[in-house]
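lol forgot to send this yesterday, sorry. struct tokens for the thing we talked abt
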């Protein structure tokens, strides 16, 4: 089309203002299309928006309830465990165990016994023998793996805590600790404290110590109840020493000495080791300078029979009386506890005693 003809066409176009004459030439960037057509062209050049996506969650309770029906259900199961001295059979599904627990993943991925190929794709069929765990405890672990929840009671909570640590199930461990703290009793506090120290559960350890200190604050009979428990008799020397370091025990030192003596005789019989040897660590935490001279005399008479307390420890207590101060004795051993009965000589232990 010639220049004159193009100008004529533009001039007669309804989209071109009458007051303006079209230029002799148009720059390459100019479009002859109306504005609406230009917008459409630009939209063609822009990338298409991606599809919208979202993760929506259905009824969690219904899903958990459905999976709960698979717990120890032989239907469709492909692995079996023989658990406890009762040799109870427990059925499971290896895909669930393997994806939920790294320990089970390793167990179920091992090549069959006698296989020459360690990378064999044939999984072991079992049965797997687990003789050192109670069936109820193992089923609680399985329940958690399937449903992410667990049914606990005071009889199995500590054992389930042990299993959760062994299998590396941190979330199950937290649930056990919460349950133990919420249901703690005099009968279980020492056993729970021992487990807390053994498995590095600092929060539970502090809670148990606070429970012992709090229960003894009400009446001496509470401390006596703690001492009579099986858990107290089975405390390790490290854990018992940790209890005896507390300033907040509402127990007199004479009662603590007697409790350590009873504990030491039981431990000596169980471990088949001499009383002084098993009791060496806890005895270091006994605050003998707090005892009156007449009490030290009685203590020496008992000590001649079992040698529970080293002679130098008793000598240091006598020296504190003779010098009328706690000089030469670690300050912690001259500091009264919350339950220490006042003696006349305590004023000489200043500034340690208040």
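and heres what i got for the seq, position by position
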């Amino acid at each position: 089309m010639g220049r004159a003809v193009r100008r004529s066409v533009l001039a007669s176009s309804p989209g071109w203002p009458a007051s303006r004459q079209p230029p002799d030439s148009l720059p390459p960037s100019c479009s002859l299309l109306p504005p609406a057509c230009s917008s459409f062209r630009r939209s063609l050049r822009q990338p298409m928006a991606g599809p919208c996506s979202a993760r929506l969650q259905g009824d969690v309770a219904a899903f958990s309830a459905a999976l709960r029906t698979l717990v120890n259900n032989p239907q469709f199961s492909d692995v079996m465990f023989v658990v406890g001295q009762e040799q109870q059979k427990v059925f499971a599904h290896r895909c669930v165990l393997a994806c939920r627990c790294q320990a089970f993943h390793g167990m179920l991925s091992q090549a069959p016994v006698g296989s020459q190929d360690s990378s064999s794709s044939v999984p072991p069929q079992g049965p797997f023998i687990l003789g050192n765990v109670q069936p109820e405890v193992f089923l609680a672990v399985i329940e958690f793996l399937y449903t992410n929840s667990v049914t606990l009671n005071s009889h199995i909570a500590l054992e389930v805590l042990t299993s959760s640590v062994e299998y590396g199930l941190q979330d199950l461990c937290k649930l056990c600790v919460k349950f133990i703290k919420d249901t703690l009793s005099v009968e279980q506090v020492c056993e729970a404290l021992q487990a807390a120290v053994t498995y590095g559960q600092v929060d539970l350890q502090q809670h148990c110590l606070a429970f012992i200190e709090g229960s003894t604050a009400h009446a001496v009979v509470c401390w006596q109840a703690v001492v009579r428990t099986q858990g107290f008799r089975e405390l390790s020397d490290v854990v018992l020493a940790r209890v005896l370091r507390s300033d907040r025990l509402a127990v007199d030192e004479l009662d603590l000495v007697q409790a350590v003596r009873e504990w030491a005789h039981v431990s000596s019989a169980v471990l088949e080791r001499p009383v002084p040897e098993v009791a060496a660590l806890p005895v270091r935490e006994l605050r003998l300078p707090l005892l009156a001279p007449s009490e030290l005399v009685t203590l020496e008479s008992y000590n001649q029979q079992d040698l529970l307390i080293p002679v130098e420890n008793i000598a240091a207590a006598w020296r504190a009386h003779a010098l009328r101060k706690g000089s030469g004795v670690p300050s912690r051993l001259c500091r009264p506890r919350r339950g220490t009965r006042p003696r006349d000589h305590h004023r000489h232990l200043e500034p340690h005693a208040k």
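The CA atoms of residues 60 and 196 lie 32 Å apart. anyway ping me if u want another try
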